[in-house]
Here is the input.
Amino acid sequence: MTIVETVLVFALIPLAIYGVITLLTLRPKATRIQRYRPGQEWDYAPVWWTANPAGLPGGAHQVAAAPVEGRTAKGGARGNW
Amino acid sequence: MATGELTRVEVDPSTLPPGAAVTNSGRVSAAKMYEPHAPSLPFTAVQLSTLDEALTLASRATGLDFSVYLGGLGAESRARAEELHASTPRPTHAVLIAASPGERVVEVVTGEESHRRLPDRAAKLAVMSMIASFKEGDLAGGLISGLRMLTDQAGHAPRQH
Here is the structure.
């Protein structure tokens, strides 16, 4: 085994493997979910979730009451972070 | 031309866009590039399904209408949250959790019946629990733990019969 072969096998091949793994970690993640950090902007469209009607005792056909006039809120709480 | 006979429209293959080809039957088959779209909310599918389950279980166990609003509330956050509460189908039984991550504010609004079941003290406790998670950046976890606390505080739905 010449000195060139030794360098190729024991230095170049490991370096190539390291290189491939480095590139794998740097590949773009288009579908990655950006985690929310406190204080960052919230550019998403507003969402309003309710319970799945199929999982409620009344079934999927809930009887909608007539809309109430005026202020309906009786209490609650608020907080900042 | 007989009934059921297929018509063939001659298509010049040179005029087709890239990715389209004329198949043996004469139909034009077009391939489209797959474009992964960014998620519309910073939640994983598991977090969303846990939230859905928590909402449904909370509403089923307590008989109250729980809902979670996530979005901007404006400068008058309380007034906006009360507006949203009034627009629910059954405001007397509605419990609205409105969180605005942009303004870093969360509001819990209860109606007539839901306020009887969930005193302000219970709502405040749930808000404090939610805020502890929101401060760490865990929006879904905070909403779920808040929902569970409100469910425990409200107790079971009274028997109808």
Notes: Residues 46 and 52 of chain B are 10 Å apart (CA to CA). The domain at 45-154 of chain B is CATH 3.10.310.50 (Diaminopimelate Epimerase; Chain A, domain 1). The first strand of chain B starts at residue 20 and ends at 22. Chain B touches chain A through 70 residues (CB under 8 Å).
